[in-house]
Amino acid sequence: MTLPDPIAQLPDALANTDPVERAKALSQALDAIPTLQRTLATARADIVNELKQGRTWDQVGELLGLHPARASQIARGVSGGTKRRPATD
Length: 89
Prior knowledge:
RNA polymerase subunit sigma-70; single chain
C-alpha cells in the first residue's frame, strides 16, 4: 500500500523548524485525506477478502469483531459512514 505523498512526507515536514512550512505541509496532508481514505478502504477490503477464503462471513466477522454483514460490506467496498441529515431550523 502506498500512502499519498503529503501523508507519507508529513513526519519529515513537521520536523521543519519553519512554522509556515509546517502549516503548508498540514494543509497538503488534509487535502490528501480523501485519497488516503480510499487507499485504506481498498486495502482493508482486500484483507477482508483474503480472510474470507475458506471461511464463512460469520467466521470473518468473529475474527474482526464485526457483524458478518458488515464484514461482507467491507469486502464489497461499502462505506460505513452515516448519512447526514439536513439541518433543521
